[in-house]
Specification:
This protein has 425 residues and is an alpha+beta fold. The protein has helices at 17-34, 49-52, 60-63, 84-93, 96-99, 138-154, 173-184, 193-201, 212-219, 229-245, 289-292, 307-316, 339-351, 365-374, 385-390, 411-421; strands spanning 38-39, 45-47, 67-70, 76-79, 103-112, 124-133, 160-166, 250-251, 263-271, 279-285, 300-306, 329-331, 356-358, 379-382, 392-397, 402-407. The two termini are 45 Å apart. The protein binds one RNA strand of 74 nucleotides through β6, β10, β11, α12 and α14.
RNA sequence: GUGGCUAUGGUGUAACGGCAGCACGAGAGAUUGUGGAUCUCUCGGAACGGGUUCGAUUCCCGUUAGCCACCCCA
């Protein structure tokens, strides 16, 4: 029988990868707490309209990349492709739009997109993100970007850039679209069918194209010209704030995003060592999303970063830190008959909060020590005939190779002492 | 979703239309109560399904998966 396989584009994680993830996640949580953000957890599965109604009809995430199906009640459900819309849904459903003045949330978890997998692109991937609801002041943007900056720094990443732009307010949008259409219309004959279609349906996305021809055409475009004075002024204040706080950024007048709900500030973090999938995170302001999902008009801003890509970026820069694992103590069994007593000793250590594993098979002591070393244990506990006669427990320090005998009355305390003093851990 | 390249023990690899080798690894052992070395032995493999052929791991097709690019984005 052929082995059962995983769905392509998902990944199993084993140690030491899991240790690396734990580190990434706990650091992210810590940084979020530093800025007053608290965790929110929403379902992985949502009604389809949570996304179709918010991300934009023309957004590729909705049209092509969502896992969607009917459940047993005939409901159209989807696996969440991103984190913001579900949070807004929950925010409105709980009535927070009407009560809370300022809400800061972070989230951490899997997202799903039915795309062809590639390095840096998985069908199930993981994002860390934050959302800040309740005010439209430029300082809010600065605060969120400062968090982002600190997060990337805390992770030890280098070689990244925050690219930033403004899309203007919702009122500016028609003028922006018209501007792009007008500028590109004379060259429409040189565009591919798909691009011409996009020009009418979703003109902003044109600016994202990698087609060299099109890029040349777009290089001259700067839609910020047609934005309202207020939108421009707001953006300048955001940039000034970033400078004051010390967040590095690169202004990119052609930066747009793939989701329709963004207004004003948008940004993207790219990493130089990642090939085609070089965006490690992105975000922006979405002042109209809460209202469009049935809530009161609450302005908000947020971002998400892709954890798999962060890991790739860390690897690309060889910044992967050594991760240490393994349990602290190994309890050996000199003879097979002593395996059971080893279990008892290990239990006594665990009861005191000391991580321990014990020999289970009764192999040669030599093998047991080899195993203990390989799995990163620091101490080995031995208690056999000799020890029993002398009423002691032998404890061997694997790093110094020294072994001593401890009176059996207080051996657990002694083991703890050795673990604490031995440095590391 | 589109196009291209790839698929050999757990890992990394070699050769070949005719018995699939090597290294690492794992297990056992070398005067049986002490680890990273050495030596000996052992374990373990052609992704899946079809076709061509006397014979296919090798050639062809399909599927799946991985990678690269597109597309998109995290």
């Amino acid at each position: 029988m052929s082995p059962v396989k995983a769905l392509g584009g998902t990944s199993d994680l084993f140690p030491p990868e899991t240790l690396l993830w734990q580190r990434l996640e706990s650091q992210a949580r810590r940084v979020a707490h530093l800025y007053g953000f608290e965790e929110i957890r929403t379902p992985l599965i949502e009604m389809e309209e949570v996304f179709t109604g918010s991300l934009g009809e023309a957004a590729e995430i909705v049209t092509k990349q969502m896992y969607r199906f009917e459940d047993r009640g005939g409901r159209a459900v989807t696996l969440r492709p991103e984190g913001t819309a579900p949070i807004v849904r929950a925010f409105v459903e709980k009535g927070l739009d009407k009560t809370a003045s300022l809400s800061r949330f972070y989230y951490l978890g899997p997202m799903f997109r039915a795309e062809r997998p590639q390095a840096g692109r998985r069908r199930q991937f993981h994002q860390f993100g934050v959302e800040l609801f309740g005010a439209s002041a430029p300082a809010q943007d600065v605060e969120v970007l400062a968090l982002l900056n600190r997060l990337l720094t805390t992770w030890g990443l280098t070689g990244w850039t925050i690219r930033i732009n403004t899309l203007g307010s919702a009122a500016d949008r028609p003028r922006v679209l018209e501007y792009i259409r007008e500028q590109l219309a004379p060259h429409a004959s040189r565009l591919k069918l798909e691009e011409r279609e996009r020009l009418t349906k979703n003109p902003l996305r044109i600016l994202d194209s990698k087609e060299p021809e099109l890029q040349k055409l777009c290089a001259r475009l700067d839609f910020t010209e047609v934005l309202s004075a207020g939108a421009k002024e707001r953006f300048e204040q955001v940039l000034a704030g970033l400078k004051a706080v010390g967040v590095p950024f690169t202004r990119d007048p052609r930066l747009v995003r793939g989701l329709d709900y963004y207004t004003d500030t948008v940004f993207e973090i790219v990493h130089s060592g990642l090939g085609a999938q070089d965006a490690i995170g992105g975000g922006g302001r979405y002042d109209n999303l809460v209202r469009s999902m049935g809530g009161v008009a609450v302005p908000a801003i947020g971002f998400a970063v892709g954890l798999e890509r962060i890991l790739l970026a860390l690897e690309a820069g060889k910044e992967t830190p050594a991760v240490s694992g393994g349990t602290a103590v190994f309890v050996a069994a000199v003879t097979p008959a002593e395996v059971r007593e080893g279990l008892v000793l290990a239990e006594r250590l665990r009861a005191e909060g000391i991580a321990a594993t014990a020999e289970l098979e009764g192999r040669a002591l030599k093998r047991q020590l080899e195993q203990a070393v390989k799995s990163g244990c620091r101490l080995v506990v031995i208690r056999s005939e000799n020890e029993r006669a002398k009423k002691v427990v032998s404890v061997k320090d694997l790093s110094t190779r020294e072994q001593k005998e401890i009176p059996e009355a207080d051996w657990v305390a002694e083991v703890r002492g050795m673990l604490n003093s031995g440095g590391g851990a």
